Amino acid sequence: MRFIARRLVFYAVAAWASLTLAFVIPRLMPGDPASVMFARFHGKLGPEAIDTLRATFGFTDAPLWEQYLSYLGNVLTGDLGVSVSYFPARVSDVIATGLVWTLFLTGMALVIAWGLGTLLGIVAAWRRGGWLDSALPPLLLFVGAFPFFWLAMLLLFLFGFTLGWTPVRHAHASHLTPEPSLAFGWSVLTHAFLPALTIVVATVGGWMLDMRNTMMSVLGEDYITLAHAKGLSPRRVMFRYAARNALLPNVTSFGMALGFVLSGSLLTEIVFSYPGQGYLLIQAVRGLDYPLIQGLFLTITLAVLAANLLVDLLYVRLDPRARGRAS
Amino acid sequence: MKGLLRHRRARAGLAILAGFVLLSTVGALLAGDPAAQVAVPLSPPSWDHWFGTTGQGQDVLAQTLAGARTSLVIGFSVGLAVVAIGALIGTAAGYLGGWADDVLSTVINVFLIMPGLPLMVIIAAYLPTGSTTIALVLIVTGWAWSARVIRAQTLSLRDKDFVLAARLGGEPALRIIVLEIMPNMTSLLASAFIGATLYAIGAEVALEFLGLGDVGQVSWGTNLYWASNDSALLTEAWWTFVPTGTCVALVGLALALVNSAIDELGNPRLRYWRRAVSTPVLRRET
């Protein structure tokens, strides 16, 4: 329990730090964001819109600590202000439209890549020196050296534009409305295929190598030799004895890698014009939509913190030592 | 260093890096002005323009070579800065221990757990565009990882006899850190530097691809930004983005090769362990 308590405190600190960063960074900018946007959208935004923006950012004449408190109050009640590029939609509503797609795409790709990579790592370590062990890791690492979004561009170019096998943009065909029908489901799957493939191809190598390396050290343990000596079937030794114990460090790195994978998948979304958080982010950047940038930063960061908390809870379930341990 | 040159993987990696340094300096001079409009926009690779031209009629080869210089300079200088900051904070946390370590470790872990891209975007969006901002953003998002490894190494060195002897001899903490602890982790510092450079090049390309850098400057990131802006995919102009991406991957691969060689040379246990426990294939690797 102490382990969980410590982690909870840590996540609270991390959440507070990200909230504070999002408050401090705009104030480091020369001038203030509201005036910059006013200059840029001159004529398109009325003075009342600017006042709304100023209020959201807390750029008032009040002392800094008062601005900070009212900002924290706004954010904690879910009030992220008004978006400029989607004016007059609220930032929270704009973000909500993209959240489902990002969770769907990244979640699916992450689970597939992690499962596949772990399985490949188990088999590679088991048959060390086999063709799987010697050919695949260098190849996957080479693929992993390419920029994430560049792989997306290449796959989109090859399969989307040149061969025409897959759709080239958006999350579903534009003539279909979201409904639980077969046609819509199929459209969603075909649209997600290439972006998901990009994420899987770019990350599977890392998972595989991690798992292979921990498997290798576990395979050197005495209890594995004993299990063999007892005459247990190789499959049983491989999965129940070796892989089960090697899985633990891999779960920890799952949490650590989440931020990296998410960053990559945001970029992938941009290449595929996939209407998730990444796509909103680039819209916000192009439109100098500061409230939206800020809202996205907070949503994504807090989501990663929450996901890491989940991984920690899972870790406690998997590792009996963590339940009683002080640290 | 001598051992590094004898290592096969390290030699391959260093050769690729040296090639890129040469290409980005001498090669870029020979290739001419990357910004000049030299031919019909989006013409495919030909004898006159080996890599074809961009949507603005610029030579892709010249752009790739000029981009290499910008990206490598940013990559290596950010790598250096990241290791310097990481060493400062990491050794301080590891050596001082107690509440100082608690505070510093928490800060390190907070920065580690925050997803990089959104943090980079929010900083780059507010500050004035330019190379300085990009470098700053990369340092802010990248230092924590090296601080974490260096802290762990300091912790294991802190209780060694020679450090204890120095402390009992009344040497000041700073002197012990710089003269006793640091020299014993040169290989770690070197691999942290390479890891940070690898990260910096990748992140710089991503940031500039998003249009958060100075899009008037030629770098690998802006090359990809313009390729995507000029609808390279729609016009099937693969030559506008394939060379740059391949270069990024080659440099990444070279850095990874050198890094794995440093790990093996600097950590004899890794080699010993492999020989003792593992299989013929792994032995061939060492």
Structure at a glance:
Chain A is an all-alpha fold and 327 residues long. Helices cover 77% and strands 0% of the residues of chain A. Helix content of chain B is 74%, strand content 0%.
Characteristic terms for this protein:
heterodimer; A: about 325 residues; mainly alpha; globular; B: about 290 residues; 13 helices; about 75% helix; disordered C terminus
Structural topology:
The complex is a heterodimer of chains A (327) and B (286).
Chain A: H1 2-28, H2 33-40, H3 47-57, H4 64-76, H5 91-126, H6 131-145, H7 148-162, H8 182-219, H9 222-229, H10 234-271, H11 277-286, H12 290-318, H13 320-324
Helix pairs in contact in A: 1-12, 2-3, 5-8, 5-10, 5-11, 5-12, 6-8, 7-8, 7-10, 8-10, 9-10, 10-11, 10-12, 11-12
Chain B: H1 2-6, H2 8-31, H3 60-96, H4 98-113, H5 116-126, H6 131-158, H7 161-168, H8 173-181, H9 186-209, H10 220-229, H11 242-266, H12 268-277, H13 280-285
Helix pairs in contact in B: 2-3, 2-11, 3-4, 3-6, 3-9, 3-10, 4-6, 5-6, 6-9, 7-8, 9-10, 9-11, 11-12
